Structure formats: C-alpha cells, structure tokens
Amino acid sequence: MWKTQYFQIRGTTEFFRITLSSDSLVNYFQLNFSLMHHHKYSLTEIENMMPWEREIYVSLLIDYIKQENEKLKMLKQNARNT
User: Fold this and answer.
1) Does the pLDDT value for residue 70 go beyond 90?
2) Is residue 5 part of a domain?
3) Distance of CA 21 to the CA centre of its chain
4) Which domain holds residue 43?
5) 14-59 residue pLDDT tens
C-alpha cells in the first residue's frame, strides 16, 4: 500500500516537473496575468488547460501578435511615404 501511494505522489511530481520544466514560476504567473489582463482569458480557463493545450494557444497568440505588429509597421511606413 505504501509503495503504491509513494509511486502516485512521485508520478504526479514528476509529471509537473517535466511539464513545467521549460517555464519558470515567474514566467508562469506573468503569462497568466497577461492572458487574463490583455486577452480576457479567465483564470479558470487557463488553469483548466492541459499543458500542451496552453502551449498551442500561447504560440498561436504570439503568431497573431507578430502579424499585428507587422501590419502596424506597414501602416506607419505607408503613412510616412504619403
């Protein structure tokens, strides 16, 4: 019985260590804040995401922001040229 309980605790810890290994705790909270404040996600939505799902949404959001920044650059250049 103790062995099973120890394995479950160690397995859970190992899962989160591997899952969050690419992200520090500070980055985790900063990203949560940005998603909530700037992009109107609720904390419940963020916390209920699977780690891989969160990574996908964040990468899509980064791509979107890059595209929007490029559009703004083009508009500024066009405004200067006219």
Assistant:
1) yes
2) no
3) 13
4) 23-81
5) 565 556 556 678 888 888 898 899 889 999 999 898 888 888 988 9
Does residue 51 lie within any of the structural domains?
A: yes
Q: Which two tokens stand for residue 60?
A: 């899509």
pLDDT (mean) for 55-71: 92
Q: Is 35 exposed, middle or buried (0-12, 13-18, 19+ CB in 10 A)?
A: buried
Domain for residue 53, yes or no? yes
Location of structure tokens 């066009």: 78
The answer to whether residue 12 is domain-embedded is no
Asked whether the whole model's pTM tops 0.85, one would answer no
Count of the separate structural domains present in the chain: 1
Half-sphere exposure of 62 (CA within 13 A, CB side): 7
Structure-token pair, residue 18: 């591997």
Count CB neighbours of 67 within 10 A.
10
Which residue bears the tokens 């949404």? 57
Q: Average pLDDT, stretch 68-73?
A: 95
